[in-house]
Amino acid sequence: xxxxxxxxxxxxxxxxxxxxxxxxxxxxxxxxxxxxxxxxxxxxxxxxxxxxxxxxxxxxxxxxxxxxxxxxxxxxxxxxxxxxxxxxxxxxxxxxxxxxxxxxxxxxxxxxxxxxxxxxxxxxxxxxxxxxxxxxxxxxxxxxxxxxxxxxxxxxxxxxxxxxxxxxxxxxxxxxxxxxxxxxxxxxxxxxxxxxxxxxxxxxxxxxxxxxxxxxxxxxxxxxxxxxxxxxxxxxxxxxxxxxxxxxxxxxxxxxxxxxxxxxxxxxxxxxxxxxxxxxxxxxxxxxxxxxxxxxxxxxxxxxxxxxxxxxxxxxxxxxxxxxxxxxxxxxxxxxxxxxxxxxxxxxxxxxxxxxxxxxxxxxxxxxxxxxxxxxxxxxxxxxxxxxxxxxxxxxxxxxxxxxxxxxxxxxxxxxxxxxxxxxxxxxxxxxxxxxxxxxxxxxxxxxxxxxxxxxxxxxxxxxxxxxxxxxxxxxxxxxxx
Length: 482
Ligand code: ARG
Prior knowledge:
Fumarase C, Chain B, domain 1, elongated, two-stranded parallel sheet, mainly alpha, binds arginine, Fumarase C, Chain A, domain 2
């Protein structure tokens, strides 16, 4: 390698903000425009990647020493310098400079300030293009793990709640009209299943996130004999990218993550919608913990479900981020383009939104209180056991289509009298169908109706308890790393 003598000449271009020489300044003849410097800088947001940037640089330095591009002593100086910089940043004692553009060059410039000439060797065999792709992958991997932990905690809470309310009867709805009795526990386990698939999608996306781009350099690879597998091992990646052009340019892994995130938010938003409905005076099915609600500045009686409302509202921004990232990528020719700098803010905000929403729901939902008398009373309104009556008639030899018709008439009679089916006298029911016997009332109770749906996936308390046990087994296996 030839010795670079440019360092003792004045650099040809400088920062408008500080007058400092640009790390890439050699071929430029005038300072960067002050506005352009700010417009193109990403340090205000990508400084959030500093831990990953340092982690990636340290692995790169260790690998460079292993293949003999750096001496062990040089690598050691770089590692220590980077450790010190991490401490500076963590202590908020780091001077972030817009003139240094992004997190990568802020840290590299500071390293050179701290350890001198040796610091200039860190960037050997590397580009910011493969560096930033590595940083985002490391950051997203850790973020996915944080999100998965919160999903699991929320699921555990839902399972406990489902067990507590396994026998609680409530109306199940289709078209938001009373349909059939279900158990509250069954409803909570429906939410659990949504989250289970969300977790699966995130785990699947994580496999494609966890690939090392470093070694792709700017776009074509590098002539240095890098040991990419070693770097991957140091950073905990499952493998190395197979194509340098692809590795520095594509952000499909971020898009895929955001799609899974949007789906998760869609699920939380549906849950939020139900929570908001259920807390209303019209439903009055549940009470949310006071610490999760707020009052009105004018209406003294109000207890507003702000947290579910906000989660429902925040779903929109995550959908928006998915659209941003898809659009960001769609017209980019290979390989890296500066467009990709725009991937970070949507990604960061997606993760923040998920973490906040999951944290809130994971504590709020398991601690809600079910107003069992109200859910039961609501089930008794709205003829929720009409299907049970039809099924009963089928058991007595009536064809289902005829039974449907008969029960329809019974509903009309009950409606006229303003009573529930179970409140009709036996003689009245028998006048509608002679097939009715005096054992009919057991099937007309909401509890009997729910208990009868005792098959896998059904709403019966016994099934809820079975699914609770199975879910606990699955969650235990996950936390034991099985
Ligand atoms: N700040 C840039 C980004 O976020 C880093 C990569 C810059 N690479 C370049 N060739 N200008 O994408």
